Amino acid sequence: MTKYKLEYIWLDGYTPTPNLRGKTQIKEFASFPTLEQLPLWGFDGSSTMQAEGHSSDCVLKPVAVYPDGARTNGVLVMCEVMMPDGKTPHSSNGRATIVDDADAWFGFEQEYFFYKDGRPLGFPPSGYPAPQGPYYTGVGYKNVGDIARKMVEEHLDLCLAAGINHEGINAEVAKGQWEFQIFGKGSKTAADQMWMARYLMLRLTEKYGVDIEFHCKPLGDTDWNGSGMHCNFSTRYMRDVGGKEYFEQLMDAFKTARADHIAVYGPDNHMRLTGKHETASIDTFTWGVADRGASIRVPHSFVNNSYKGYLEDRRPNSQGDPYQIASQILKTISTVPTGAKAAA
Ligand code: ADP
Ligand code: MN
Ligand code: MN
Ligand code: MN
Fold it and tell me: Could you give the domains of the chain?
């Protein structure tokens, strides 16, 4: 038997953006534990905005498990928060009720800022560094500093050790701003991985004295880019059948559901979706081929492949909840009728 360090991780009850929380328990297993072997656990909901009335006990229900590369015999356990009966989802538990489809693929592009001493990493104590231009995909100390790359590389290794589908990294447009991409099949699987990747980044950067700023427009109304979390998505029908007519109906449905999407695409998105800095205005829905100023960008490959493949919704922001984002996209897609081939 081996003693495993189980880190139970969950989303708290803060609004509009939940925080990640985690605590450790040690349990013995013969080998790396499966989800089914992991017991329910509890925590004090009165300290996380999750207490209901006089009873402050909430239950943690494991829903996904990953190896923890930062700890010997470490296990990362993604949890849903349940009521004391262990069966009823807590009101803060958005994951329990989302729309899922194992054949829907999601690729999230998480942008964020490294922050140190209350400002983006690499910004001088007052004023601004050289304007945007050389930082995106940049190299060299004057562009990326000395510890950012170390952190993103360590984060990449932690994600890969956990079995998370980390797909890539790039330095972003603003100084101190970076991106990583996470891919998953099914809304719950993809979003679990994104939340776990966020957790790993937050935990990793503690030792560097660096914070992660997920707000979508931390520098306000300036010439510094905001942060998004573009959501690339495809259903089996979009990949296998597609077609121009279906695509146009899909875009009509997205236009009709514009407000429902914006409602779950992250707080303060009006600060970011201004029509500037490679964004579309929050008040209109647009799509365009290879257009980074549209709400939805249609890749060239999609058009060249008879309107089959994936689309990129550029509106979700860096603080958005991937569970809700993926679910809303599937809800809107489900309003568009598919041909008989869809059932195959
Ligand atoms: P860009 O910065 O050009 O918008 P990225 O390379 O950062 O693009 O992200 C594109 C993401 O699209 C990748 O991370 C990948 O996971 C995702 N993706 C690729 N193919 C599909 C697909 N068929 N369905 C859903 N997502 C996809
Ligand atoms: Mn990208
Ligand atoms: Mn980007
Ligand atoms: Mn993108």
Answer: 2-93 (3.10.20.70), 105-343 (3.30.590.10)
